[in-house]
Amino acid sequence: MHKKIKAYHLSHRGRQFVRISSIIIPVLAIVLTPIAAATVSAQSSQGDSASASLAADNPVKTADLRYKIDQVIQQNESVGVITSVKIANLQTGQTLVSHDTATSHFAASINKLPVAMLLEQDLRSGKIHLSDKLTWTAADVRAGDGFYDQPGAPLTATVQQLIQDMLNRSGNTAVVVLVNQPLGGAFAVNARLEQYPQLVQTRLMIVGPDQFYLGNTTATESLWVMKQVQKTKDGYEQLMQNAMATNIFTDYGVRSQLAGNSYITLANKVGILDDPTGSGTNRHDVGIIYNSQTHRSYAYSFLTSNFSNSTDLTTQAENSLKQMGLDILRFAGDKPQPGMTPTQTPQNPTQNIQPEAKKVLY
User: Coil, strand or helix: which one is 291?
Assistant: First the structure.
């Protein structure tokens, strides 16, 4: 039996058991979203003829975006909400907004992204396969919104099903199993992350021989990891991109501000945790926005933390993610389209997700 290393993970309360068919996706029949079909990540790193011809963003619009984001940051920090922001144009490489990008935040579920990045590498090398079946015990199960987090859920799944659950529903059990088994445990994960000079803060936080939290990250590092996950265009990247582009967290952050149209696609990961006396009350959102009409894509990282029990500050942080989300989406060209309802994209209905009440060590 493999050594069980218990992992901390964001846990959402009060959700009912929901079996969703999207958990099981045959390898040869991955349902691609517009962002995958448009190869946003290829444009961000390789530069095709369309992206090469793109001029820099309008300087007036860019200045307006910076002003709007700066206003939100000032409002947050005036009441003690620590805020880190980075926004970049993936075609030109230009950083549009940068504020406290090296400040360390407890990552909550944002640090599922480096787990996904390492899994992609092992899938491409043939070390693991999407069809590999993993088995775990009830002791590995964590509460949350994931399919495998629910009472009575199966204790076996393929690597593909667990990746889907980890990124689409932020599955807690899924990340425990993936870290402990195919990735070899928290120490092995950290050893690999240490090989990247771009990652200084992004680590699993090991607090004992068999215990760890998901650890810390920064705006710069989380954005870099998100771009790596969506960089190489193949079936593995498409699986992960589709899982994020159709994720269930439609009431939080940037996704809640989508205007409702067929040409803007957002692939993102959120982190939500309430632990004011420990790692802070965290409201994070990291993602890539792609406009299939303009062929432009923008990457963003919005990280907010506060250490107050004040529900007003938590509301302030949540609203700030929505406001910055609205600003970057409109900057990217997101506008309502007749016949489509805002925040209800073709992929998802709006759902209410509750954050974890406090930080828990697993």
Answer: strand
Strand partners, 298: 89, 289
In tens, the pLDDT along 146-201 reads 999 999 999 999 999 999 999 999 999 999 999 999 999 999 999 999 999 999 99
What is the total residue count of the chain?
Answer: 362
pLDDT at 326: 97
CA-wise closest residue to 265 among 20, 22, 37, 21:
37
| 189, 179 contact by CB (below 8 A) | yes
The answer to whether the CB of 245 falls within 8 A of the CB of 265 is: yes
Distances from the Cα of 12 to the Cα of 155, 169, 200, 327, angstroms: 20, 10, 29, 28
Bridge partner list, 287? 268, 300
CB atoms within 10 A of CB 333: 17
pLDDT tens column, 38-94 = 434 434 444 433 444 467 899 999 999 999 999 999 999 999 999 999 999 999 999
Q: Which two tokens stand for residue 337?
A: 């389209």
Taking each continuous run of H as one helix and of E as one strand, the counts in the chain are 11, 11
Alpha helices (runs of H) in the chain, residue ranges in sequence order: 34-37, 40-45, 49-52, 59-78, 112-125, 159-168, 172-180, 186-193, 219-229, 235-245, 311-331
CA distance 75 to 54: 34
Q: What are phi and psi of 265, to 5 degrees?
A: -125, 135
